Amino acid sequence: MNVEGTSSKGLSGLRVMVFESRMSPTLTQLVRLQGGEPFAAPLLKEVPIERNQEAFAFGEALLAGKIDLLILLTGVGTRALVRVLETRHDRERILSALRSTPVLPRGPKPIKALDEIKVPYVDTVPEPNTWRELMATLDKREEDIPLKGRLVAVQEYGARNHELIEALQERGATVFAVPVYRWELPDDLGPAREAVRRIIRGQADVALFTTAVHIDHLCRIAAEMGVEEQLRAAFEKIVIASVGPDTSEALRAKGLWPDLEPSSPKMGPLVAETALRAVAVLEQKRRHGCGVEVRDAILDLAVEPVPAYEDGPFLRACRRQPVPHTPVWLMRQAGRYQASYRAVRKERTFLELCKSPELACQVTVQAQEDLGTDAAIIFADILLILEPLGTGLEYSKGDGPVVPHPVRRRADVGRLKSVRPEESLAYVMEAIHLTRRRLRPEVPLIGFAGAPFTLAAYMIEGGSSKDFVRVRRFIREEPEAWAELMERLVEATGAYLSAQVRAGAQVLQIFDSWVGCLTRDEYVRSVQPHTARLFGRINGLAPNIHFGTGTAHLLDLLAQAGGDVVGADHRIALDEAWTRIGHDRAVQGNLDPEALLGPKESLRQRVQAVLERAAGRPGHIFNLGHGILQTTPEENAREVVRLVHELSAR
Ligand code: CP3
After folding, report:
1. Binning pLDDT at 50, 70 and 90, where does residue 3 land?
2. Nearest alpha-carbon partner for 508 in 518, 523, 498
3. Preceding amide of 269 cis, omega within 30
4. Ligand 1: does its nearest atom lie under 6 Å from the Cβ of 567?
5. Helix H segments across 478-589?
6. Are strands 507-512 and 565-567 parallel, antiparallel or unpaired?
7. Is 521 exposed, middle or buried (0-12, 13-18, 19+ CB in 10 A)?
8. Mean pLDDT, the chain, as a whole number?
9. CB count, 10 Å around CB of 391?
10. Residue 515 and residue 455 in contact, taking contact as beta carbons nearer than 8 Å
11. Residue 579: how many CB atoms within 10 A of its CB?
12. DSSP characters over 419-486
């Protein structure tokens, strides 16, 4: 996507807060080119560390040939490091030592710095260039760049990257951290304070965060002004755009929800993609407009808290914000266990029902209202996309889904058609549109799709499977065809999910239902990068949920691939699952669907047990571990929803 320099003016009339320091002139110019009104408020100053003992010790080790691998995290830091060493040693000696040491740059900026001094590097790290991709690159090169027992130097910038250091240590490396400069608040805090005031007064529409440190600094400045809470509340009404995953993580850690993250973690795509989506995001965030007028006096006195815009418990839980009660919905809440569903279904096939927007809307709303859940999920199926892809799709009574033209070899992948969801799946968009209008305003609508692996499993197996032998063999024996198939599915599902958001979906769930059949190794090598790319496409469109079953051994890897909320099934205790997922994410789950078969008297205790594992921590969405069973008494499904609300009321 490249809209820079074109005539599109996606930021026309929008007031954009630019927090970048060094590249501030470039970024403000990019904003102007898109028709926006930039306000530059630099949030940091880079301070070189004088008398840098670690850097000098590193210099000695480097010249003695003792460094087995040097990891460079930033371009500015790489240049600064060479400058520091030059105060003690001859430049040519330093460069020649660097040239004979294996060097791994994290991304394009350190690469540029290395090119300037003609120092080669052993590999490149794929986008989005976080420590995760860096470690994945090293893991791939395990044979020729071993870490065990080796001395690995890491050029650091500002804050320490603990995750990276721990990951290196886990693989047996000795880590030599070399801090080069640190970050401080800028000397002139005037512009930053003015930015805080403008955001709180409602005189800003978009905030561009270009490094993780910005968030800490902004919160510090607001805290000193005594308006941290007001600032947080005001962010619920403006577009929060984050340059990449590290910055987004820092935002979430402060309870701020990034609305946008570009497909590539650079300033150009950040502005271009913000321009494309800002107006839609603003409309959505301001739809319920609380229209709080903030008197200037508050900014000086900071006494009265600004009432935050209250959206429902479900969306708040996705963002790990406090809720009045734990939100709950049930996977497959509309289905054959309901008499009303069976009545509608009696007259037509499942596919006919999916393709009748009016009826799909009716069964969606009926299930939500009848159960009293905190969200509705659009009535559809993860396999509908197989029809436009060209493999065909049938649902046979008793056998579940059947794929008449399965993918068995590379040529079959080549024959797949590209999907234009707004045309070939127009009936889903129509159903979403109708349902969004029909549901009560405080009930969010969930859109969904199958994850690339689970869709591929159906396409290769030709239908449901117990052992998934065919798909696992395919991954092993046809690696290129597999990569191509994943590519096609990421493309198709990415477009499908975006279209659902445009039609009115407010949350997206990705079902990787059968991913639990894979080993960690298979997942990391052949699935995770593709799932991560799908999340890269949809992050920021709407909060998203990443769900799979039998994933106890994969939860950390699933969380790495993506998901504002990560689902766990009932085979693992929820607290254990949450620890593996990480407390920086919300979780969904995980009552055993079998509990709903009764007796009704035992339900209370089983619901209570799940809630206890969640321990009232913000960011729990109650659900079953997997879809509701067909033989479930409707009364018990209602009772679960009622119990969750009662037992979790705060
Ligand atoms: O309330 C909801 O959750 C409604 C929407 C929904 C359906 N399927 C309706 C459906 C959703 C979100 C799905 C997702 C889905 N579909 C998944 C992922 C979730 C999971 O269970 O892991 C999967 C793997 C499928 C594929 C699929 N569709 C199967 C295996 C089957 C047959 C098995 C069965 O339960 O009958 C379907 C058909 C299907 N999808 C039905 C429903 C209500 C039953 C159709 C009928 O009325 O006969």
Report:
1. very low
2. 498
3. no
4. no
5. 479-503, 520-522, 528-538, 555-561, 574-581
6. unpaired
7. exposed
8. 90
9. 23
10. no
11. 12
12. --HHHHTHHHHHHHHHHHHHS-TTS-EEEEEE-HHHHHHHHHHTB--SS-HHHHHHHHH-HHHHHHHH
* Nearest residue to 235 (alpha-carbon basis) of 196, 267, 275: 196
Residues 157-173 have a mean pLDDT of 87
> What whole-number distance in Å separates Cα of residue 368 and Cα of residue 72?
52
Which is nearest to 209 in space by CA: 242, 185, 246? 242
Q: Which atom of ligand 1 is nearest to the CA of 380?
A: 5
* Tokens matching residue 538: 């949809």
d(CA 537, CA 558): 16
Nearest to 455 by CA among 386, 521, 388: 386
Substitution site in 342, 370, 381 for ligand 1 pocket (most atoms within 8 Å of beta carbon): 381
* Integer CA distances (angstroms), 59 to 145, 226, 355, 358, 629, in order: 21, 44, 67, 71, 64
pLDDT given at position 287: 67
d(CA 613, ligand 1 centre) in Å: 28
The CATH code belonging to domain 47-184 is: 3.40.50.10090
Dist CA 558 CA 343 (whole Å): 38
Regarding beta strands 394-396 and 376-377, do their DSSP bridges make them parallel or antiparallel, or are they unpaired?
Answer: unpaired
Residue pair 227/303 in contact (Cβ under 8 Å)? The answer is no
- For the CA atoms of 510, 513, 517, 518, the dihedral, rounded to the nearest 10 degrees, stands at 0
3-class SS of residue 211: coil
Write down the domain spans for the chain. 3-44+188-306, 47-184, 313-647
SS3 157: strand
Helix (H) or strand (E) holding 8: none
**This model's pTM is above 0.70:** no
- Joined together, the tokens standing for residue 575 give 């607290």
* Per-residue model confidence as pLDDT tens digits over 615-645: 999 999 999 999 999 999 999 999 999 999 9
What dotted CATH number matches 313-647? 3.20.20.210
Query: Hey, what are 535's tokens?
Result: 């999340």
Which of 338, 355, 374, 382 has most ligand 1 atoms within 8 Å of its beta carbon, as the pocket-test mutant?
A: 382
Domain 3-44+188-306 has CATH 3.40.50.10090: yes
**Do the domains 3-44+188-306 and 47-184 sit in the same CATH topology, yes or no?**
yes
Residue 87 burial (10 A CB sphere; 0-12, 13-18, 19+): exposed
d(CA 266, CA 30): 12
Question: Which amino acid is present at 261?
Answer: E
Residue among 32, 286, 336, 606 flagged as catalytic: 336
Q: Residue 623, SS3?
A: strand
What local confidence, expressed as pLDDT, does residue 4 receive? 40
Is 379 close to ligand 1, i.e. is its CB under 6 Å away? yes
